[in-house]
Amino acid sequence: MLTASVVAAEETGFPSGFPLLPHPAEMIIGIIAFGILYWLYKTKVVPRLEELYEERAAAIEGGMQQAEVAQAEARAALEQYTAQLAEARAEANSIRESAREQGAQIVAEMRAQAQAEASRITESAKRQVEAERQQAVVQLRQEVGTLSTALASKIVGESLEDEVRQKGIVDRFLAELEAGEVRPEKVAPAGQDA
Amino acid sequence: MSPTVVSASWLPAAVATAEGGEGGFQTPGVANFWWPVVPFDGTGPWVLTRPALVLLISVGLLAWFYLGATRKLSVVPTKSQFLVEGSYNFVRNTIGRDIIGSKDFLQFVPLLMTLFTLILVNNVFGIVPFIQFPTMSRLGIPLVLTVIVYITYHTVAIRRKHGVLPYFKSLVPPGLPGWLKPILFALEFLTYFVIRPLTLALRLFGNMLAGHLMLLVFILGGEYLLLHGDNLFLNASGVLSFVFSIAMTFFELLIEFLQAFIFTLLAALYISDAVSEHH
C-alpha cells in the first residue's frame, strides 16, 4: 500500500523522501506572481486610491469651510436680529413710558378741569341761590309790606291808606328789622297774644 | 452539491492507483498536493504545477479587479469601488497605520496590500469550485512571501539603525547587566532571524495544508465508505462524512481569511519593529 503510493508519487516527480521540500518552479512562479502584483499595486492601485483619499479629504475640508462660512453668516444674521429686537424692545419701552406719562398728564389735566368745572358750577349755583334769595327777599319785602299794610289797615282802619305814609312806615319797619332793632321775640309774644 | 464534493472526483493519481491496485483505503497525504500540469508526468525540476497555475490566475484576477475598479474613482463610491476601498481601508488603516504608525506606514501599504490580497484569494481558492486548491499548502509559495517580508524588515531595520552592527546592538535593550547581554542577544537574534520567518511561513502553510487535508479525508473517506462499505451503516456514515465536509468547508473559509489577516498583520508587526527607534 505504502510502496504503491511511493512508486506512484515518484512516477509523477513527487519528492517522496522530502515530502515538504519546496518546489523550485513553484517558488520562482511565486516570486514572479508577487512581483507583478506588487508592481501593479505600487504604480497604479495605491497611488490612485491615495489620490482619491486626498481628494475626498479636500472635499470634506471644503465642505467644512463652506459650513463654517454659512455658520458665520447665520451667526451674524442672528446678532443683527437680536440687536434689532433689543432696539425695538427699547423703543416700545420708551413709547410705553411716554404714553404712561402722557396718560398721567391727561388724567391730571382732566382732574383739574373737572375740579374747575365743579367749582364753577358750585359758584354759579351759589350765585343763583343768592340771586334767588335776593329776589325772594325783595318779593317777600313787597308781600310782607302789602300784607302788613293790609293787616294794619284792617286793625287801624282806613287812616293808613295813604300810600306815602304806608311806604314810609313799612320801609322803616323793615329797615329796623334788618338792623335787628325789632326783635322777633318782642313781636312774637304780641302775635301770640293776639 | 457542495463545491468540495466535486474535488472527490478529482482523485489525485497516487490515491487512484493505490485503490485500483489493492482495493484498500489510501489515506490522503502531502503527496495529494503534488499536481504537475506541464509536463504531466512531472519529471525534472522545471514543472508547471497546479498551485503555480492557480497563483498566476489569482494574480490575473486581482490585477483585473483592482485596476478595473480604480480606473474611474469618484469621491462618492460606486459598488465595486466600495469593495476596493473596503479591502484597501482594512489593509491600509487597520493593519498598516495602526501597527506601523502613521509616520512610516504609507510606503509599506503596497507590500501589505499585495500580501493580503494574494494570500486571501489563494486561500479562498481552496474552496472555490473547480479551482479548489489552496496555493499556500505548497511550502514553496508561503516561503517566497516570507523571504520577501524577511528581506524587507531587515533592510528597513539596517537602514533605520544606520548599519548592521548598530542593528545587532539594538537587539539588546540598554541598561542590562553585562552577563545577561550575550544570552539576551542570542535569544533576540534567534527570534528575529530564525523563529519569526520560520513560524510566519509554516503557520500559513500548515493551516492551509491541514485544512485541505481534512476536507480530503472527509470527502475521500466518505466516498470510500459510500461506494465500498460492506453494510448500510458504513454507507450512511459516508453520507454523514459528506455532510460534515460541507460544514468544514465553511469553517475553512474562516480559517482562510484569518490566515491571510494574520500573515499580513505579523508582517506589519515585524516592519513596525524595524522602523521603531529602539528595537
What do these coordinates show?
The complex is a heterodimer of chains A (194) and B (279). Chain A is mainly alpha-helical. Chain A has one domain. Helix content of chain A is 88%, strand content 0%. The radius of gyration of chain A is 68 Å and the shape is rod-shaped. Chain A starts with a helix and ends with a helix. The N terminus and C terminus of chain A are likely disordered. Chain B is mostly helical. Chain B has one domain. In chain B, 71% of the residues lie in helices and 2% in strands. Chain B has a two-stranded antiparallel sheet. Chain B is globular, with a radius of gyration of 23 Å. The N terminus of chain B is likely disordered.
Write the layout of secondary structure elements.
The complex is a heterodimer of chains A (194) and B (279).
Chain A: H1 2-11, H2 24-156, H3 163-179, H4 184-193
Helix pairs in contact in A: 2-3
Chain B: H1 3-9, H2 13-22, E1 36-38, E2 48-49, H3 50-71, H4 79-100, H5 109-124, H6 140-160, H7 164-171, H8 180-228, H9 232-275
Strand line-up of the largest beta sheet of chain B? 1-2
The number of distinct structural domains of chain A comes to 1
Number of separate structural domains of chain B: 1
Report strand % of chain A: under 5%
Shape of chain B: globular
What integer value in Å does the Rg of chain A equal? Answer: 68 Å
Order of helices and strands of chain B: HHEEHHHHHHH
**Count of runs of 4 or more consecutive helical residues of chain B:** 9
